[in-house]
Amino acid sequence: EAGVVQSPRYKIIEKKQPVAFWCNPISGHNTLYWYLQNLGQGPELLIRYENEEAVDDSQLPKDRFSAERLKGVDSTLKIQPAELGDSAVYLCASSLGYRDEQFFGPGTRLTVL
Amino acid sequence: KNEVEQSPQNLTAQEGEFITINCSYSVGISALHWLQQHPGGGIVSLFMLSSGKKKHGRLIATINIQEKHSSLHITASHPRDSAVYICAVPVNTGNQFYFGTGTSLTVIP
Of the N and C termini of chain B, which has fewer Cβ atoms inside 10 Å? Predict the structure, then answer.
């Protein structure tokens, strides 16, 4: 069975440009998470979805970040405009339900120049 | 103060050594996760446990809910075990996951 798929794996953009990340969770997983991970640090939750509903987006910088999971399956995370400090790895994870074991995607490494 | 504290932050061991990584947390939880992240790679879930002990191959994870402490042990360590090991806890109230900053393990042949 395929794991969590993310694309692109790497993205380099200039500051002030928009960028979008895509995540396809494991089939049947209702819960989807987006995390941000800075070098040498643990992941930080940005947003959690239960099906198509964003149940926790308290850590998402809403002035520039947005996310959607329209049909309760795939999800996209967007940054517009990107800033230098947004350079990080963006991880997507999914689980059957909240507090079930999470499975992580390979991440998208974003570099903002 | 971090809700999840891990120690040590960095660990270097000789191949074959027994390794212990510790995790302490300050919030009420229903389960705790141990994750593994290889350099440049994605994160792999190793264990999810809510009580007692779990074993998978050379890896053993224990948790003491009363003491709010968990340990990850690696027996007969191998260079391929070199990775960052992260402890994570979902919080009972609210909708947060808290992660430790990770323990960077290097096993030398």
Answer: N
